[in-house]
Amino acid sequence: MPEPNDTHSKGNIVMVTDGGSIPDPREWRLINAWSIALVGAVCALFALCLLWPEPYLRILLYLPDGVLITFKITVMSICCAVPLGLLTGLGRISRNRVINLMASTYVEVVRGIPLLVQLFYIYYALSRFFQVSGITSAVIAISVCYGAYMGEVFRAGIMAISKGQSEAARSLGLNRFQTMFYVVLPQAWRTILPPVGNECIAMLKDTSLVSIMAVPDIMQRARSFVGTTYLYFETYTVIALIYLIITLVLSKCVSIMESRLNYYDGK
Amino acid sequence: MTESNERVPIITISHVWKYFGHLPALQDVSLEVSAGERVVIIGPSGSGKSTLLRSINRLEEIDKGEITVQGQDIMSRENDINLIRRNLGMVFQQFNLFPHKTVLQNLILAPIKLHRLSREEAEERALGLLKKVGISDKANVYPAMLSGGQQQRVAIARALAMQPAIMLFDEPTSALDPEMVGEVLDVMVNLAEEGMTMICVTHEMGFARTVADRLIFMDQGQIVEAGKPDTLFTAPRHPRLRQFLNQIL
Fold it and tell me: A201, B22, B37, B83: which has the fewest Cβ within 10 Å?
């Protein structure tokens, strides 16, 4: 006869998704993949601009507006996608059948449609009913898409917290909501942060798709530069290096945040 | 124990059934616990003793029968289970301290969120309880820094911080190294001496013998024998209890 309390709870560190692009916070050796990539990219960019200011420096100086737009879309999308992901994750573990079904259906539908198609759908197809600007539709499409992916991350992170934690909270008289927000989520956050950080970085890279809708992000700036100069090789080399530097710096930030969250391990 | 409240049932369990799938975990279990009484439940693993204990605060939902705590039916929709649970402190085998909170924060979380005690009042009460369980010097460390015995004493203090009328202990010493069992049992004995109503599932026969007003032996989801611990230990009537005692003593 099963006695649930007899089972020993395991540690709650579970890899939710592949955290590949986040450097391991315990990795302190100077030479690792992350530092090689970052130093390489920065040096390459400097070298190109110093050795051949024309056209590389000109390309570089043409891009800052685009970087701002890319960041703007990314930050706005993160601000929408993370809460949406949390709601979806909570919906997926809800005991309410209707909420559960709604959340699951949302995840299934969105995961089955490529982001590019979703972008086109909101920007072009839905323009029959209402007009939204390129940036707004980009933020909506990216948030809706990543909200579904993050929902799965949140769900897995919450499920990884041992049942004893919520039982202890409930036995003190905390209700379901209080248990989730004071006890389970603060712990789940530690499991959730690396994959969510990864999703945010992936999101930044995916914002390059919005250049197709004439949103002047990094990629669109590059395309317009190429359009007048035909310097395909030079321009896209600079673009690739810039994206690389940005994502490497961000992944290091996530890694630092991750190590900060390990404060209660007793090590 | 005062004679006046000895006969007042604070918990009544009547004809309770609980199934895990098709397996009956509890079969027609009935039990009354009086205010101030110390009940110890023993039995082989899988006998349903933890399930019975967890049914009292509805961590397990029973399938048939009725459980009342202080006169309130715990399965009724009219009664808020969260209010009932405030009067039922629970201590788990695996401690289940909140690892992201310090010892002090573990103790004040529920009192602040539920009683709306001020932080100062809650902290004062918490520090008093930590002193009582003998770990006032660890108030600001995280649970991972503590030994198992210390963690379990914090867990007891955390349950007491809600000032419950009844304490439920679910094998509180089973996950501990042998040398730490004593310190936890000492805290529980002190609590018993203060007149706390306690229901305790345990394998500690010495504790059962000294503390219990009533000893209950469960097997296969049923209460097989109940009575004064001395009687059960020295003159067990039921063959299954005799066999169980032979195995463990």
Answer: B22
Cβ <8 Å between B59 and A170 = yes
Check if B140 contacts A (Cβ < 8 Å): no
Choose among A6, A173, A264: nearest Cβ to B82.
A173
The verdict on a CB contact (< 8 Å) between B93 and A167 is: no
Tell me, letter by letter, the H, E, C secondary structure of A181-230.
HHHHHHHHHHHHHHHHHHHHHHHHHHHHHHHHHCCCCHHHHHHHHHHHHC
CA angle B145, A16, A71 (to 5 degrees): 105
ipTM surpasses cut 0.90: yes
Is A171 in Cβ contact with B94 (below 8 Å)?
A: no
pLDDT digits (tens, 9 = 90+) for B111-148: 999 977 899 999 999 999 999 999 999 999 999 999 99
Q: How many CB atoms lie within 10 A of CB A240?
A: 13
CB contacts of A170 in chain B (<8 Å) are 59, 82, 85
Q: A172–B46: do the CB atoms touch at under 8 Å?
A: no
Q: Which residue of B has its CA nearest to A162?
A: B96
